[in-house]
Write a structure and sequence with these properties.
Strands 1, 2, 3, 4, 5, 6 and 9 form a seven-stranded antiparallel sheet that branches. A two-stranded antiparallel sheet has the order 7-8. It contains no helices and nine strands. Helix content is 0%, strand content 64%. The chain has strands spanning 2-7, 10-14, 19-23, 32-41, 46-48, 57-67, 71-77, 82-88, 91-101.
Length: 102
Amino acid sequence: MFAIIVTGGKQYKVSVGEFVQIEKINANVGDTVTFDVIALQTAEGFKVGTPVVEGAKVTATVTEVGKDKKIYVMKYKAKKNEKKKIGHRQPFTKVEITAIEG
């Protein structure tokens, strides 16, 4: 059994017991969060929602909140003696999928 959820403008294929690193959400470590399901695979068959599957939800527990590895971006303009190095660390939330209902 698996489900496809939407969070942070992205879609993730998840199943029970899986750890997923998603975009940062407003939750602390140990909190329980629920996600809307847009597609669901069960023993009865495959269900696709318009836009979400009615009565289906995915429950997850927040296991970690942090920042990703640093990514460096270099801006450079030729013949102008102009260059700039910028670093960025994307915040994330890591969740463990505990239940899929539907």
